[in-house]
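Comment thread on ticket #2218

A.B. wrote:
> Attaching the input chain for the structure job we discussed in standup.
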Amino acid sequence: MGGLTQWEGKKNVGYLDIVGIPTACVGDTNNVVVGKFYSDAECRARLEQQAIVHVSEVKRCTPSIGGGQLVAAGLLAYNIGGAAYCKSTVDRMFDAGKIRAGCDAFRMWNKAGGKVVRGLVNRREFERTLCLQGIPASTGR
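C.D. wrote:
> Ran it. Output below, let me know if you need it in another format.
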């Protein structure tokens, strides 16, 4: 999952993120123990496992996408969770064949704890750019 380490960063010790969710390694929130040390090998394995889980969830909800849209949606799902992705405007637009609108909808996910977070704004623009790759500029789809 290109881009995850760029946006998630890496911390080998479990901690609470900006909204209080136990997190470790490369943004992993699955069964994390705050204060526990995770080796580089554990972090690598956790990253690979969670990337597979989240891309699988995206493919289950949006089976028609691939390429840049799949990579971008996988990055989004890794950050917001598969369930949130599957209920998102991004998914609904992709399912309706409105790819450009789906890519634009990434921008909606720029808040944490109800507040706009500059890092999420930047991340969503990165994901949107990935999503738009290969879509002709003149198409409304």
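A.B. wrote:
> Thanks. Noting for the ticket: The chain has one domain: 4-132.
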